[in-house]
Amino acid sequence: MKILIVCNHMLFRESIRRILVQLDDKLDFQEESHLGTVVKKIESYSGMELMVYYTGQLGGAAVSAVKNIHSHRPDLSIVVLSESNKKSEIHSVVEAGAQSYISMTSTVEDLLNGLKKVLSGEKYITSFSDSEIIGGDSNDEETPLNLTKNGAGKSFDLSERQYDVLNMMLLGKSNKEIARSMEIGEGTVKSYCSIIYRKLDVGNRTQAIIRAKEIEFSCI
After folding, report:
1. Closest listed residue to residue 5, CA positions, set 71, 66, 79, 67
2. Could you give the domains of the chain?
């Protein structure tokens, strides 16, 4: 089976590859870091059956990219991985041509189950609990938790789960302990950490903890 992994983070591409190998250790992989060259890649990559696309933000650009790729290869199964749990965004990317949407808060088992369903011709969307899904008739936007530096009024727009991960970092918990507490995989915790570092404009856990303390983040 020929699979294209699309992600601008080398670490994430390698992680996705390792997960997919659990389905079949004879998979033939190609990788692409930029969406702009994906169409050219799939045209030259004969016999590709599946594209796995990871994007941190599931916005209009991601939806447009999926729609463009689907228009060139309507037979190609597209799986989108993202941390978004907004109904409108998930609906848009599926309507654009994705056969599957799998949340980065999922377990490895959920990811594998989703991929298996896609390969059998089914559409698959991660199941969210009522407390996790965002968006409804009255409000389709996520309300982030804001960490605001004293006097600066700068929002860091952390989601509920990102807030929880940062809170547990401050309590000195390891990734394994955070994963156990939140009932998610360690890989998912690492993904959240990367997002937290980016939003707090830091490079590692120690800097994130220092940054959080600087803006008077309080443990609950």
Report:
1. 79
2. 2-125 (3.40.50.2300), 160-214 (1.10.10.10)
